[in-house]
């Protein structure tokens, strides 16, 4: 496992990778960023695969911030996910930047038609935000709903506005 801190125009982001892919991509506070940068200097060098996953993540995020064509999404790994969560997150990862989907639509497309609330819980537990774009999931009435990432609903609004350029 290897971790790195990336900067964005909004908040810093901690990315954790293994040889299998990105296992966590989370918004963090500036205080956490400072602490994690110090800690990351103490970790061993990343393996070749970890280095590749970190580089791909950096390229993808930079393209997003700069409204450039997005490269292939970095590999992700749902190591600690339940089968339900993994299924929902894989389906969510298919959504297109700038488009939203309702909890109900996501439940149906992931094969769990009557599990809208459980889908909401899966969104709240999503460890790979942005790459597994839980910010694109909204309520059936058109309201944005919640966002469990750092910065809450304001971060969700910012991401949706950013992606509206795609």
List keywords for this structure.
6 helices; 166 residues; alpha+beta; Arc Repressor Mutant, subunit A; 3-stranded antiparallel beta sheet; two-stranded parallel ribbon; 2 domains
Return the string of H and E elements: EEEHHHEHHEH
Instruction: Supply the number of helical segments.
Output: 6
Largest sheet: 3 strands, antiparallel
- How many domains comprise the coordinates? 2
- Taking Cα atoms only, what radius of gyration do you get, to the nearest Å? 16 Å
CATH topology of the largest domain, which one? Arc Repressor Mutant, subunit A
- The helicity comes to 40-55%
* Terminal residue distance: 32 Å
Assembly context of the chains? single chain
What's the β-strand tally?
5
Shape, please?
Answer: globular
- Average pLDDT taken over every residue: 94
Q: Kindly report the spatial arrangement of strands forming the biggest sheet.
A: 1-2-3
Report the CATH C-level class of the largest domain.
Mainly Alpha
Strand content: 5-15%
Q: Return the structural class.
A: alpha+beta
Commentary on this structure:
By secondary structure, the chain is of the alpha+beta class. The chain folds into two domains: 2-65; 83-163, Winged helix-like DNA-binding domain superfamily/Winged helix DNA-binding domain (Arc Repressor Mutant, subunit A, Orthogonal Bundle), CATH 1.10.10.10. It has six helices and five strands; from the N terminus they run βββαααβααβα. A three-stranded antiparallel β-sheet has the order 1-2-3, sandwiched between helices. Helix 4 crosses helix 5 (116-124). The longest helix is centred in the middle third of the chain and has 18 residues, at 48-65. The protein is globular. The relative contact order is 0.15.
